[in-house]
Amino acid sequence: MTRTVTTGTVAVVTGAASGIGRATALRLARGGYEVAMMDLDVAGLAETGTRIQQAGGLAHPFTVDLCDPLAVGSVTREIAVTVGAPEVLVNVAGIGLAANVLETSDADWNRVMSVNLTGPFLTIRATLPLMLDRGSGVIINIASVGGQVGLARRAAYCASKAGLVGLTRAVAVDHARAGIRSVAICPGTVETEWIGKILANAPEPAAARAAMASRQLDGRMGAPDEIAAMVAFLAGPEGRFVNGAALVLDGGMTAGTDQG
Ligand SMILES: NC(=O)c1ccc[n+]([C@@H]2O[C@H](COP(=O)([O-])OP(=O)(O)OC[C@H]3O[C@@H](n4cnc5c(N)ncnc54)[C@H](O)[C@@H]3O)[C@@H](O)[C@H]2O)c1
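A: This is the predicted complex of the input protein with nicotinamide-adenine-dinucleotide.
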């Protein structure tokens, strides 16, 4: 990937210690962004940082629980002072929960909402003023196909991701005329550490893997870098006409059925 931005252009990526967040941090760094990485997972952040360094990029790890308003506020201020005001914010961190409504405890509901929806609200609220000061900024939220259609035994997850799509559009409506773009990406199944853990715990991992792959019309799971590539496109000048959209990247998973 060639450099697409001027030196010192800062991108913040949450969930950068693993999966889609790691691939996004790596891709943006390769594109010339200086990347501030937020995550809870110290070792994972260090590993992403090493990979970025080996690729000749610049990355800065920030250990933070994205559900903690005070911590998100203070880390964002620290990033602005020590790295620079972000041009791009990518909200990737998220958690899943395999449960229908009847199986979902209050604590589980609140935890999923807190990480998947309140977390992005907090990072956006902390970062927007810095973007508005400069008159430009791009916010990209990783939602899910679960924010577009219902997925079996994913009640809280689907609700949180539909909420994130709504938040994405509301931010675009409120701030587009001030130079802000806000876009959601809704991936289908992407082969990350998260999916690896689900498969490892399945009674028959090989069968579970085949079933997961076959949910996509393409018959395979996506790769984290296929999501990261869209992030890079949206963040850069070629993405400048995309605002308030929810882009589905799912190998045809939600296109319809080809089973008669
Ligand atoms: N993998 C998929 O199939 C898939 C499909 C659709 C959407 N998504 C979405 O993409 C995003 C990334 O998924 P992934 O598969 O890369 O997951 P992952 O589990 O590999 O990575 C998620 C990262 O978020 C971090 N995180 C979780 N809670 C946090 C918190 N409170 N504070 C700070 N960091 C926290 C984790 O430490 C981890 O590094 C999620 O929002 C997920 O909902 C994933």
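The longest strand covers residues 180-187. The pocket of nicotinamide-adenine-dinucleotide is lined by residues 15, 17-21, 39-41, 44, 65-67, 92-95, 115, 142, 144, 187, 189-190, 192-195 (CB under 6 Å).
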